[in-house]
Write a sequence for this structure.
């Protein structure tokens, strides 16, 4: 199993309520978070993307140079990158880091006009992503690549250095029908948000069926979970702190509100209608008060309880875990020490 953390990639402090002020967004701050993750058992961390944030490839390159085993999971957007330019940059960083680069392909909406891209509908966006991922793989492994697609084309293109054994692993998210068809054919790892077990099981079954129906020609699709984990010494302490964090979210973001969201995010927001706590310890309330993405649902409990909940996802076929909580530095150490050993034990046995 792969255990990854999350390193905030923002200039302004306060991301997800983190109380760090001094040094936030500096090189020393980001390197400190990465080396802390490395010391406490994490194999790497996700760096988020979006216009208005630091460039993830630049950040990933610096972090790879300042660590020894840490794998930056660099989020990128087709449209911000042309596929050949991306393939060349990724091949270079993968080569220089000894193969430690991971890539998260993001197709969700962004401020596209700010960096010169154009908005398309969902079908167009994911069709473009599919071509982007396919071209990158061809360029990493073949010479003189020619590809004529609807959205991208290259002619006689060879990337240096080539990666004949295959390039960086491609993580991918999205819950719409269009997104799942891309994942089934082009991704290495499909990332899920923190849904209940029954929803994850249903999606894994559907993606495996799609992979067969669409004649996937890659290694079998793997699955990952991106979620917040609030871990404390006892169940009582965990829920006390969870309620305190909800109060802070409510004070910061105001009263609960209804908002239009992408398909995957809307699935999370809708979970609150099923109950405040689902499965054993999946807390749905954060989404009502402005928690978004991986902060919409939390796994809350003692180390044994949260580890047991994550094992149940592993039993369904999830082998990649991208976890987080704030304050980032403290929780990088706490969650790593509390969970990774517990989760590796049954695998070793």
């Amino acid at each position: 199993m792969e255990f990854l953390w999350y390193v905030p990639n923002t200039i302004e402090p306060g991301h997800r309520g983190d109380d760090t002020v001094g040094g936030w967004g500096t090189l020393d701050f980001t390197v400190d978070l990465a080396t802390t993750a490395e010391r406490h058992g994490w194999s790497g961390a996700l760096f988020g993307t979006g216009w208005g944030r630091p460039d993830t490839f630049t950040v990933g390159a610096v972090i790879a140079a300042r660590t020894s085993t840490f794998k930056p999971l660099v989020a990128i957007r087709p449209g911000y990158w042309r596929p050949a330019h991306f393939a060349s940059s990724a091949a270079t960083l993968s080569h220089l880091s000894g193969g430690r680069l991971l890539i998260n392909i993001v197709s969700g909406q962004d401020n596209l006009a700010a960096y010169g891209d154009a908005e398309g509908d969902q079908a167009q966006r994911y069709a473009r992503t599919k071509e982007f991922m396919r071209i990158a793989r061809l360029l990493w492994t073949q010479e003189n690549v020619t590809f004529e697609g609807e959205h991208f084309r290259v002619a006689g293109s060879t990337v240096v250095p080539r990666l004949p054994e295959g390039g960086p692993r491609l993580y991918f998210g999205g819950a719409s029908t269009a997104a799942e068809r891309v994942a089934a054919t082009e991704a290495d790892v499909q990332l899920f948000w923190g849904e209940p077990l029954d929803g994850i099981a249903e999606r894994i079954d559907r993606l495996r069926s799609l992979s067969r129906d669409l004649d996937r020609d890659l290694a079998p699709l793997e699955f990952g979970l991106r979620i917040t984990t609030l871990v404390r010494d006892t169940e009582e302490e965990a829920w006390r702190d969870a309620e305190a964090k909800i109060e802070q979210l409510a004070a910061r973001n105001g009263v609960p509100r209804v908002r239009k969201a992408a398909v995957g995010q809307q699935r999370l927001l809708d979970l609150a209608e099923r109950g405040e706590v689902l499965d054993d310890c999946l807390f749905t309330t954060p989404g009502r008060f402005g928690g978004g993405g991986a902060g919409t649902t939390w796994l809350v409990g003692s180390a044994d309880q949260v580890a047991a909940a994550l094992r149940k996802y592993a039993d369904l076929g999830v082998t990649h875990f991208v976890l987080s909580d704030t304050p980032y530095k403290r929780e990088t150490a706490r969650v790593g020490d509390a969970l990774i050993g517990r989760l590796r034990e049954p695998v070793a046995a």
